[in-house]
UniProtKB/TrEMBL annotation:
Pfam families: GntR (PF00392). Residues 9-77 form the HTH gntR-type domain. It comes from the Bacteria. Signal peptide: none annotated. Keywords: DNA-binding, Transcription, Transcription regulation. The lineage of its organism: Bacteria, Bacillati, Bacillota, Clostridia, Eubacteriales. The keyword Transcription applies. Gene3D superfamilies: Winged helix-like DNA-binding domain superfamily/Winged helix DNA-binding domain (1.10.10.10). It comes from Alkalibaculum sporogenes. This is GntR family transcriptional regulator.
Length: 123
């Protein structure tokens, strides 16, 4: 995980997003432990309160939970919850904008599909 001080997003959001990415990519599997607040603060040279704020976002959304005296763990079902959350964000952030721009340019549905297929074939 990389903390980018030039990123517009607050550090605690970057921490939450980074842990989510690690869960989705399998670095942190369901029911596995994530790094402690202290580890985040030492490794990234940030205030522990900032690390805690980022992790609390994940606790509040049900992605991680605390085992008293042991640390924070990835919730069972977190991967599926994250996929659904990210799909919704993808739709809201990209698809809606794509459709709005296509309408402004008078691009048809079939043309959009062809463009997407062309983009996918370039991978």
């Amino acid at each position: 995980m990389i903390i980018d001080l030039k990123d517009e997003r607050p550090i605690f959001i970057q921490i939450a997003d980074g842990i989510e990415d690690a869960i989705l990519s399998g670095i942190f599997t369901e029911e596995s432990q994530i790094p402690s607040i202290t580890e985040f603060s030492v490794n990234y040279k940030i205030n522990p309160a900032t690390a805690l704020k980022g992790i609390n976002i994940l606790v509040d959304s049900g992605m991680v939970y605390k085992k008293r005296g042991l640390g924070m763990f990835v919730t069972k079902g977190a991967v599926e919850k994250l996929r659904e959350k990210r799909k919704e964000q993808f739709f809201d952030n990209y698809i809606n904008n794509l459709i709005a721009e296509a309408n402004r340019l008078n691009i048809s549905k079939s043309e959009i599909v062809l463009m997407i297929e062309r983009g996918l074939s370039n991978e």
